[in-house]
């Protein structure tokens, strides 16, 4: 399996790029949201990759961060979630937000992604919650959501921010970052106040 590709960007399209490595061009699908905005044709890039092999074609899916690729692989392990839908989810949410929604059992939040309905969101939570707990344990993702963190406080924080007009992903990201910064002693009011500061509204 191709674990990663490091080479020169030959061309960039909306959802895929062509990377030249040793005179060979590799076509790699990359969600537009996570593609480094400072990269352009002629720049060097390293992408962690997932290779999908089918009878009629081979496809490479690339991610700037290893954690993004790991979350992608877990997403597409769920029945009914193919690589295109997995990429669509990561094009709508950050990988931290995907982990947060699943650990919190928030299938409704997941259903905001294009192509993810209510049943698909519930299936993602059911099949991945335990796997994501293991993924979260001791890795970089724990900087965004600690394994022992009280998710009820985060849920209250997210609810308060969404009632103020913020989108769920925006609210969740701000609450997670605030919780990580303030630590386990912070209560709901502390989280809300800190999240509003991050969002520049306090």
Quick recap of the structure?
The chain is α+β, with helices and mostly antiparallel strands and 202 residues long. 45% of the residues lie in helices and 18% in strands. It has three domains: 4-64, OB fold (Dihydrolipoamide Acetyltransferase, E2P) (Beta Barrel); 67-143, DNA polymerase, domain 1 (Orthogonal Bundle); 151-198, Ubiquitin-associated (UBA) domain (Helicase, Ruva Protein, domain 3, Orthogonal Bundle), CATH 1.10.8.10.
Topology:
Blueprint: E1 4-12, E2 16-21, E3 24-29, E4 44-53, E5 58-63, H1 66-75, H2 83-92, H3 95-103, H4 107-110, H5 118-136, H6 151-163, H7 168-182, H8 188-198
Parallel strand pairs: 3-5
Antiparallel strand pairs: 1-2, 1-4, 2-3, 4-5
Helix pairs in contact: 1-2, 1-5, 3-5, 6-7, 6-8, 7-8
Corresponding CATH superfamily of the largest domain: 5' to 3' exonuclease, C-terminal subdomain
* Structural classification: alpha+beta
Per DSSP E runs of 2 or more residues, the count of β-strands stands at 5
H/E series, N to C?
EEEEEHHHHHHHH
User: Which CATH first-tier class of the largest domain would you pick?
Assistant: Mainly Alpha
Whole-number tally of structural domains: 3
| Biggest sheet: strand arrangement | 1-2-3-5-4
What is the architecture of the largest domain at the second tier of CATH? Answer: Orthogonal Bundle
Q: Helicity level, as a percent range?
A: 40-55%
Gap between N and C termini, in Å? 49 Å
CATH fold-level label of the largest domain = DNA polymerase, domain 1
Q: What is the molecular shape? A: globular
Main location: cytoplasm
Organism: Dehalobacterium formicoaceticum
GO molecular function, one term: DNA helicase activity
Region (Domain III): 150-202
């Amino acid at each position: 399996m191709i674990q990663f590709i490091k080479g020169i960007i030959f061309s960039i399209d909306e959802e895929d790029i062509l990377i030249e490595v040793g005179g060979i061009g590799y076509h790699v699908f990359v969600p537009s949201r996570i593609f480094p905005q400072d990269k352009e044709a002629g720049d060097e890039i390293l992408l962690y990759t997932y290779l999908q092999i089918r009878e009629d074609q081979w496809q490479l899916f690339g991610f700037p961060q290893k954690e993004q690729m790991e979350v992608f692989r877990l997403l597409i392990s769920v029945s009914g979630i193919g690589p295109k839908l997995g990429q669509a989810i990561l094009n709508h949410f950050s990988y931290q937000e995907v982990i947060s929604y699943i650990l919190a059992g928030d299938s409704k939040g997941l259903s905001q992604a294009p192509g993810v309905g209510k049943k698909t969101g519930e299936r993602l939570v059911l099949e991945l919650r335990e796997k994501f707990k293991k993924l979260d344990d001791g890795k970089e993702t724990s900087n965004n959501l600690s394994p022992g963190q009280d998710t009820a406080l985060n849920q209250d924080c997210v609810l308060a921010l969404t009632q103020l007009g913020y989108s769920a992903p925006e609210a969740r990201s701000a609450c997670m970052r605030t919780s990580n910064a303030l630590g386990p002693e912070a209560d709901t009011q502390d989280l809300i106040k800190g999240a509003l500061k991050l969002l520049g509204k306090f």
